[in-house]
Amino acid sequence: MDVIGIRVNAVDIKVDPSVFAMSRDGRAGFVIDSGYEFTSLSNVAFDVLKNTLYEILGTPITYAGFEICYQFGTVWRSKPKPVIGIMFRGWLFELDERNVWGKMDNKNMRLECLLVHRSPGIKLSVLGAAQLFNVNVGHDLNNNLLYLQPMKCPTSVDP
After folding, report:
1. Which residue, of 4, 12, 91, 131, is most buried by count of CB atoms within 10 Å of its CB?
2. What CATH number does residue 31 fall under?
3. Which stretches of the chain score pLDDT less than 70?
């Protein structure tokens, strides 16, 4: 599973693919872990994503550990939510916007925050459970293939 980049609104953002390359000790690279609540990106990848969203949406608000939040309803009136995708070698996995932006209640205002965090002091990026909601994850051991297929689970509740 080779992750080679991140795409926002059909444009590859400038993250060197080596940022996602697995290290021998497993402390750097990209993994899928449903035990992580939210996706986390290494500092390098997160900063590029944050700057890209800043250019598209304007200055974000930080709230409760989320670095990229916007006042609910204000930004989205004039601009659509950016489509974020993870680029694997040979295919693109676009994240469902319902799995990427979450509503937060602050005392003074309602916010919508990017459900992606900065990896805390490590170079490992993790695709977490919130972004895999309504996604069928499969691994073909015989052919060493990974499948991420968006689907609507009949008994699911939107996040």
Report:
1. 131
2. 2.40.70.10
3. 155-159
